[in-house]
Amino acid sequence: WGVTLLFDKRRFAVITDQQKKVEVVDRDAGAVTSVHDFGEEGYIIRIRGITELPGGTQWYVRTERIKKLLDHYEFEPSNYLLYDVVQKKVVRKLRRLPTILSRGARIAPDGQSWHVFDRDGNLQIVDPKTLKETAKVDLATPLFTGQGRLSIGRTDLLFGRDPKKYRMLCTFSDPVQHNRSSWGYVDIDLEHNKIGELVEWGQGPGGWGTFVSRDAKLAVATTGGFGDNDRKMTIAVYELEHGKKLREVSEEFRPRQSLSAISPDGSKFYVAGAGSDFQIFDSTTLKKLKTVEFDGEIYGQVFVLDG
To answer: Residue 259 is inside which H or E element, if any?
Structure first.
């Protein structure tokens, strides 16, 4: 019913058993290593999502509780459970996530704190125990006169491998013509909490769904393909030294199929979604290499993992 890749990138938390259990799957062992049962007597429990906390010993588990009465069901408000993974017990019940985490928190590359982008686009460093801001990286104040607004993406080109730095794709809005923007990357120094190198390439891919190879040399991005009447998608390949478009191709796919991933070395990209077919394309020739047919429907995202 749902799959979450945990911070160590070696384990998955998988929602199973009519949405009342979480099984932890170790991908090296190829086996389930622990099972966490959230079932309650007299209730139907549905797990809707799992958020791992820094340190890896606790989760926020979003649940729905449906009380089974004699002749009807009674739906209760959804809530969050602060769950101890080691002791396999609920520590606290929460009506909602703490406000400071509600805007999309991520675990810092060193695994010790929360990183949250606030409403102004600044990066907040949040202590996981006190939930208080301990530091901030100012990303909203222009570094020079005439700089457009900086919008940080969520893709770290270093993929969390450097605990002292992010290298994030970003866009720069034109300060005069606001509907125009360019793209580039920004280095965020996590040791001194400041902006490092800021590089602007020029007009970016726009659209939606940008995927970056693990060596951060290539990206693929897609536009179009919205709605049943427009199923033609344009997929473009960019090099990430100068942000230049190398090539593009337009293909028609079934509804709800989309660009889903790029291989770690950037040599292939993948289209998946609705249906059981997984299409593989060559990033250099843009030709389809083959289609892989699975036994059932493809559900959820494609996870790209280091070897």
So the answer is: strand 257-262
Distance of alpha carbon 133 from alpha carbon 131, whole angstroms = 7
Task: Tell me if 271 sits within 8 A of 253, measured CB to CB.
Answer: yes
Whole-Å CA distances, 101 to 56, 131, 168: 16, 8, 20
Spatial contact of 306 and 9, defined as CB atoms under 8 Å apart: yes
By residue count, the chain amounts to 307
pLDDT of 178: 66
Q: Provide Rg for the chain, Cα atoms.
A: 22
Number of helices (H), then strands (E), belonging to the chain: the values are: 0, 25
| pLDDT tens digit sequence for 86-140 | 999 999 999 999 999 988 899 999 999 999 998 888 999 999 999 999 999 998 8
pLDDT digits (tens, 9 = 90+) for 6-30: 999 999 999 999 999 999 999 999 9
**Residues whose CB is less than 8 angstroms from the CB of residue 133 and which lie 6 or more positions away in sequence, other chains included:** 100, 124, 125, 126, 127
Backbone angles phi and psi of 101, in degrees to 5: -100, -5
CA 34 to chain centre: 24
- CA-to-CA distance for 148 and 159, rounded, in angstroms? 26
DSSP E strand boundaries for 162-244:
165-173, 181-189, 194-202, 208-212, 218-224, 232-239
Is 228's pLDDT higher than 60?
no
- pTM here is 0.86
